[in-house]
Amino acid sequence: WPSLILLRSDVTVKMLGEERRSSEHFVKLLTVGDGDFSFSLAAIRSGKCRGSELLATSYDSFASLVQKYGEAAETNIASLVEAGATVRHSVDATRLESCLPKQTVAEEMHFMHPLIDAEDKDRLARSGSIASNSDYIIANRMLILNFIRSAEPFISRPNGTIRVTAKDVYPYSWWRVQRLAQHARPIRLQTVEPFILETFPGYISRTVDRNGTLAVESASTYVFGLREDSTAEAH
Fold it and tell me: What's the pTM?
């Protein structure tokens, strides 16, 4: 399957705030594609991680975020920085090797409600790559698969995890997220957990459209990790 996701350059807002070892930049939690950054902020507020243990990223540039989500995005980013978190923009979840320092190591990596960016969807539609609902489903499956492949070198060994949260209804259920690991060795699906929105106070799932929101009453988190027999080189 060819990649359908376009690369954007990365812009650093704040340098990594914590080193675990001299050769590694360790973070407990790394988020990708976090719309208005409300999930990243909710992760701190829930006690899942401290600010200094968080690397929060968005696919959009800072200017695009503000244009899409307005003051909420600016406020959340300011709160993250104040809490000691690292914030990066224009980070392509399918090209992390080009967007993150190569020694970045994450205990958990989260992609909440992944969806093809609206501008990329329009571009692909004009080129004929997306001409039907089936094409759109495939494009989103490719987005998630390429994220898993891209994330694998950055998770801690041997117990780091890659977590993808998606709704349980059509068309999201047709993405068959649980089957994608077979195309991303040495990654395997470890478990599927119900996503409990109340666990993350203040989190509002944003769509890729301007200032849109996504209801997440029924969603699951797919937890991927390394195969036990993996011979992947440790960080």
Answer: 0.84
